[in-house]
Predict the 3D structure of the following.
Amino acid sequence: MNIQAIRLFLHVMQRGSLAAGAQHLNMSPSAASRLLSGLERTTGLTLFSRDGHSLRPTVEGLQYFHECHRVLVAVDELPRAARRLASGMQPRLKVASGARLANSLMIPTIARFAKRHPDVEIDFQLAQAHEFSRMISEPPPDVAVGAMLSMKTTAVETAPLFDMPTVAVMRRDHVLAGRSFVRAGDVAGHRLIATPVGPLRDDLEHIFLSEGAEFHPQYTANSVELGCHLLLQIGAVMIIDPLVPLAINPDLFALVPLRPSRMVQTSIFTPVLKTESRLIAEFKACLHEEARSIEKRVALLLGNARATAKTARRGGRPAKRAR
């Protein structure tokens, strides 16, 4: 298959017109049109619907664009990999995570891995939840961790790492801190911190809507870590999983389980086209080891929270049974 034709197709898709794509590759529009038509004949796909001089991508064209993009990313990476090998540079891993997992999971995992492989170079990058689509853009990380991708893509292989319960996070002196659990309606009457638009915000709105509770957060913070620090100062509540409070200092927070119970899944993402090297496999093994450690700490932390609630009830607060 003609690589130049695929490059032209990508540039036409990205720039919105045949003329712009041809100009980027220093081709005449007529030559570009012939090359694009040849690509359609070779693939048997109708990549564009033609309305006069206007090209609009078809559903097949959009799907083929994503496939071509990930393949060319891998092809373009080959010269760089060859230069690294020829220069005798140290092996290197590129890893990524969302901010929620950085301090609680990724940094301890990197430290665990570095003890076993002190000579390996590691490039660690943060990505917001909505940026995980970069897994199919250039150059993709060797390993990334985060919540489930909102879109389906054949470019990324997904493997579950752990599930975390959703909890209401607050100061230890908060009026709700002694509860064995809370519902959205219990939290609705208190100061609430939420993230701005995004998956976390959507999930939170769904939780309140499903319980028939009013959702009006008084404060917003564009990261869970900022929200946790803010709630300590103003006595507010944030509904999240336990990972960030665990990484900051679990002694500062009360974590009260949310009912009905909701779990937040964290997964490992790896590029399908990249062969799993020994180092990648060992980094993933370190992730699993750190995940098991986190699960034990969270179980202990929530167990202590339940013990605190029982003590409070013995002091005169009636127990409420979970349904």
